[in-house]
Design goal:
Layout: H1 5-11, E1 18-21, E2 25-29, E3 39-43, H2 55-75, E4 80-84, E5 100-105, H3 126-136
Antiparallel strand pairs: 1-2, 2-3, 3-5, 4-5
Length: about 140
């Protein structure tokens, strides 16, 4: 896709600090990192939404996520990592190309969990929600 910054990085049109690559995905340092080592993993194939990704692309992409996560833990000595994927504009997806953030975390760094970004409360019975989800698969 010609107007996609991530496609431009994948094609080499925009320089990036690549840390990992496989047949399906490319991982590079975030240009505006939250912390040192904040990495973005994108499928090489342009897919706007995670919910639209072909299975073979998902496998290769999440294999890359795993490798990057391991490298953040061992290479940077991080105590943990947040993995973030925003699927759709309502979820905060700013660039319409599926991507996963791997953000190094350290004991006592003052950050919260990803759950802390959601406001509101679940109100429907869990059994009803489960049935809705099952019927949509």
């Amino acid at each position: 896709m010609s107007d996609c910054v991530f496609c431009d990085i994948v094609s080499g049109g925009i320089d990036a600090h690549v840390v990992f690559e496989n047949d399906q995905a490319l991982a590079f340092l975030d240009a505006n990192p939250l912390v040192d080592g904040h990495t973005v993993i994108v499928p090489k194939k342009h897919v706007e939404r995670f919910s639209e990704m072909p299975r073979e692309v998902i496998g290769g992409t999440f294999s890359a996520v795993r490798e990057v996560n391991k490298s953040i833990l061992s290479g940077l000595g991080a105590d943990g990592a947040n993995l973030g994927l925003n699927d759709g504009k309502a979820a905060g997806q700013a660039i319409p190309h599926t991507h996963v953030h791997v953000i190094p975390r350290y004991d006592g760094d003052g950050g919260g969990s990803l759950h802390s970004i959601i406001s509101g409360e679940a109100s429907e019975d869990l059994e009803k929600v489960a049935e809705k989800l099952k019927s949509a698969i």
